TrEMBL record:
Its main location: membrane. Residues 402-434 are annotated as: Disordered. It is a multi-pass membrane protein. It is found in: Cell membrane. One of its GO terms (molecular function) is transmembrane transporter activity. Residues 424-434 have a biased composition (Polar residues). Pfam families: MFS_1. Residues 13-401 form the Major facilitator superfamily (MFS) profile domain. Keywords: Membrane, Transmembrane, Transmembrane helix. The chain crosses the membrane at residues 12-32, 52-73, 82-100, 106-125, 146-164, 170-190, 223-246, 252-274, 295-318, 375-396. It comes from Paraconexibacter algicola. Gene3D superfamilies: MFS general substrate transporter like domains. This is MFS transporter.
Length: 434
């Protein structure tokens, strides 16, 4: 590989990252944007509140049942066809939703949109992992994860205005256009990562020899369980922060919503910071567990201040909300690195499936606890979840240390000539065993 070719390859990985982030963000604009147009959804179909919730559930169920199959397909045939077909199908399903004449047809269309849109999760993560070396992967996947709340925030701002101008149909057409644009970008610019040299591929295969597939790997399930515990606090705070600020602290709805938007933006940025920090440390799990400890302490402090009735709880609740959003990229990266590059699609999809279950359950449980007891007890309860995550994730920290040691031994024993152009290109493009 010539110097010019290497330079082009170095630059092109950022194109892949941009396409992956676009695909993930476009689909998340649907998942997080629908609640913003729930009034139009309710009035268009004359729905009750439980029926509005059922529409959101249809989308979530579609995602849950297809995340792992799409991940398996990404590992088998590559990211480009999966994202292209999946996001095209999402756009088509949203066009069907826009033209639905009955609530049943709308539910079916939303379920289809979820089923197709889930393709962007594992495929985009796998693409980024393949193009970036381990020493930059946390930062790159942090950017990819940042696209999720960013896409949701953009949708929350733009969709209500579109719905006001052209009704629910125009808002759904805009979402379809975003997904179709991401599909076109994937078809044009998403390319497979350059293959590894035979000697390095053999070492990576040896490093993962005898390991079960991610769906039967206890480490993958443990990481998923820890992630579900961490997302409990995140989902509860994002879902109820505005209500807490309005009902308990007496803020007006406008400033309360602005506070939520600010925490979401700061939380998105914190994912990049956490990813970069993990790259410098050369490990994901120690930082992931430190964030879990911090979340538990912050939430316990919020619970105590709310019980005391002091306004000091407000800045601490905002800080806790930001902190609970900072870990996602680390866990997503760790999922791919535990199972290796060739099985990253299904590993990342499995982790997201378990996280989605936690996201679905947590707000309902938190709301029930608060309604039955108090806000202070609700915050105290969610503080327990990240504390448990610290314990659940502990064995994985030792596993990561052992994998890093094996990687270092492999690096030191590379064959003569391994520092030539072939070695340079794979080091740059994610060739380290993971």
């Amino acid at each position: 590989m010539s110097g010019e070719e290497r330079a082009h390859t170095l630059r092109y990985r950022w194109v892949v990252l941009a396409v992956g982030a676009l695909g993930a963000g476009a689909f998340n604009s649907l998942r997080m944007g629908l609640p913003a147009i729930s009034p139009e959804l309710r009035s268009t179909y004359a729905l009750s509140l439980p029926e509005v919730g059922l529409a959101f559930t249809a989308l979530s169920v579609g995602v849950l049942v297809t995340l792992v199959p799409w991940g398996l397909l990404s590992d088998r045939i590559g990211e480009r066809p999966v994202m292209t077909v999946g996001l095209t199908g999402t756009a088509a399903a949203l066009l069907l939703a826009a033209s639905a004449r009955s609530f049943g047809a709308l539910l079916a269309a939303f379920a289809l949109a979820g089923m197709f849109g889930a393709s962007a999760t594992g495929a985009s993560g796998r693409a980024v992992m393949g193009w970036f070396p381990r020493r930059e992967r946390g930062f790159a996947l942090g950017i990819r994860q940042m696209a999720l709340p960013l896409g949701g925030a953009i949708a929350a701002v733009t969709l209500p205005a579109l719905a006001h101008r052209g009704g629910l149909e125009l808002a759904l057409h805009a979402l379809a256009g975003a997904c179709a644009g991401a599909a076109v970008a994937a078809a044009i610019w998403l390319r497979p990562a350059p293959p590894l040299p035979a000697w390095q591929a053999a070492r990576i295969a040896a490093a993962h020899a005898g390991e079960p597939p991610p769906t039967r790997d206890p480490r993958a399930w443990r990481l998923g369980a820890g992630s579900a515990l961490l997302v409990t606090a995140q989902a509860a705070l994002i879902g109820f922060l505005v209500l807490y600020l309005v009902d308990v602290e007496g803020l007006a709805p406008g400033p309360a919503a602005a506070a939520l938007a600010a925490t979401q933006f700061a939380g998105a940025m914190s994912r990049i910071v956490a990813g970069r920090s993990s790259d410098r440390a050369g490990a994901r799990l120690p930082l992931l567990r430190r964030i879990a400890r911090r979340n538990a302490l912050l939430l316990a402090a919020v619970a105590a201040l709310v019980a005391l009735g002091t306004p000091l709880a407000i800045p601490l609740a905002l800080a806790a909300t930001v902190s609970t959003m900072s870990w996602n990229g680390l866990a997503f990266t760790a999922a791919g690195e535990i199972s290796g590059r060739d099985r990253a699609g299904v590993a990342m999809s499995l982790q997201n499936t378990i996280v989605a279950l936690g996201t679905t359950v947590a707000p309902a449980v938190f709301g029930l606890v608060v309604a039955s007891t108090s806000w202070a007890l609700g915050f105290a309860l969610v503080a327990v979840a990240p504390a448990l995550a610290v314990v659940v994730l502990a064995p994985l920290e030792g596993d990561e240390t052992a994998r890093n040691a094996r990687r270092e031994r492999a690096r030191r024993s590379r064959p003569p000539g391994g520092d030539g152009p072939e070695r340079l290109s794979t080091t740059t493009l994610g060739g380290s065993p993971a």
